[in-house]
Design a protein that fits this description.
By secondary structure, the chain is mainly α. Strand 2 and strand 3 form a beta hairpin. It is 63% helix and 5% strand. The chain has a domain of 208 residues. It contains 19 helices and 3 strands.
């Protein structure tokens, strides 16, 4: 095991508070009207889940917490969503900082990790549950670093926040089975089953999905649809999603009979901007994190099984979210944000076996800062300007990848934290 950190707890908390306050002030979006599915979460907070689609209505914990906050402090719900985001931001930074302390990592890691476009995107989309969910995930891993059993109640709450928590439960269960921890694997399965059952009950009175398909049918069609859209730039159309597309179909065919509520499908053509959209989703949020992660995984992949179950769960969950982001929806830049445990929890531990001198540290931070600045400047850009910025981000990530080759790499076998 590593030696306990020399810095006291209050140092980590103060760094977290200063970081959160800086982000909240500099990235302040103000109070605004909800957009897209944010309007559904406002309706749920208002006590009308029956007016929303079932896949929104099951995500009850965040709107419920906002409603409690609004009732307790006599504020309107829109302001309560914003205040909830500020509280979640502070709690997320504190949980992350305390996790770093538990893992014997310096508090200086925190601002480098979280002062990135991803955190700004999470904070500004405060009608969504993404930041609230991230805060609970950070609490889960902090609790897990002490005991898996005290983390299970948080896992249950996460299922009430977003159904994709099944990925976290699945990673935890698989890793527990590989370690022959049968009791924990069973407990995780029970918590997941109970959480999913409770969310289905909460969504019982809501509207069925607009495609008229059950969950299995919808996801079976959704994955190839999103893959074509996000990776290949091939945009398809249905009469049920016409209102969400900015492209018009070049041709439309009628489906014999029907497929749920879908009666027509069409093809909108090849749109390379969608591929650029996906590339932006991977390159913008985490600075040079993708380049560093790719290098460290390549260098230390054989030592990954030697790390403890907390690291392995964070790593597996982050990688899974990163890989699935482009095939679970047409908003990959949002879904990529769920991969943050890879960059904010696992990556710092992968970097521990490296020996940095002051010059190397400055160069790495400079590359990361440049990538973050370009990422911030790319918000809202399109066309050639967006393409140029993405090329700069790609160059910075490649530079980080090869820069790490010049740093002495120690064998991780004895340095990897064990349980």
């Amino acid at each position: 095991m590593n030696k306990p950190p020399k810095s006291p707890v209050y140092t980590y908390v103060l760094v977290a508070a200063a970081t959160a306050v800086s982000i909240a002030f500099l990235a302040n979006p103000g109070i605004y009207q909800p957009y897209l599915e944010g309007a559904a979460y406002l309706q749920i907070a208002q006590g009308h889940p029956e007016a929303t689609y079932s896949y929104y209505a099951g995500r009850v914990l965040h709107p419920f917490a906002v409603r409690v906050l609004a009732d307790t402090f006599s504020m309107d719900l829109q302001r309560a969503f914003f205040v909830s985001a500020v509280i979640s931001l502070l709690a997320l930074c504190v949980f992350l900082s305390l996790y770093l302390r538990k893992r014997s990592l310096t508090p200086a890691f925190l601002p480098v990790l979280v002062c990135v476009p991803a955190m700004v995107m999470l904070y500004r989309g405060y009608y969504f549950h993404d930041l609230f969910h991230a805060m609970l995930v950070a609490a889960f891993f902090l609790a897990y670093s002490y005991s898996a059993w005290i983390a299970l109640p948080i896992l249950f709450l996460l299922h009430w926040t977003r159904e994709s928590t099944i990925l976290l439960s699945g990673c935890l269960a698989v890793i527990s089975l590989r370690r022959r921890d049968w009791a924990l694997a069973l407990a995780v399965a029970l918590v997941a089953a109970f959480g999913m059952d409770m969310t289905s009950i909460a969504a019982h009175s809501a509207l069925p999905n607009k495609h008229g398909l059950n969950a299995l049918e919808m996801y079976a069609l959704k994955v190839p649809y999103d893959f074509c859209n996000n990776f290949l730039g091939l945009v398809f159309w249905t009469d049920t999603n016409a209102s969400t597309l900015s492209f018009s179909p070049k041709w439309v065919v009628n489906i014999p009979g029907h497929l749920g509520s879908i009666h027509q499908v069409g093809f909108c053509g090849f749109h390379p901007s969608m591929i650029l959209h996906t590339l932006a989703a991977f390159l913008i949020p985490f600075g040079i994190g993708p380049g560093i992660a790719a290098r460290m995984i390549r260098e230390g992949r054989r030592a990954l099984p030697q790390y403890d179950c907390v690291f392995q769960t964070a790593f597996a969950y982050g990688i899974t979210c990163l890989m699935l982001a482009p095939v679970i929806g047409v908003w990959p830049e949002r879904y990529v944000l769920y991969a943050w445990p890879l960059f904010w929890l696992a990556l710092p531990e992968l970097l521990k076996p490296l020996t940095f001198d002051h010059v190397q540290t400055i160069i790495l931070i400079a590359l990361h800062s440049a990538a973050c600045v370009v990422g911030f400047l790319s918000f809202g850009r399109s066309g050639f300007i967006q393409f140029a910025m993405l090329m700069i981000l790609m160059v910075l990530n490649i530079a980080a990848y090869y820069f790490l080759k010049s740093i002495q790499y120690q064998i991780m076998g004895q340095d990897a934290p064990q349980v």
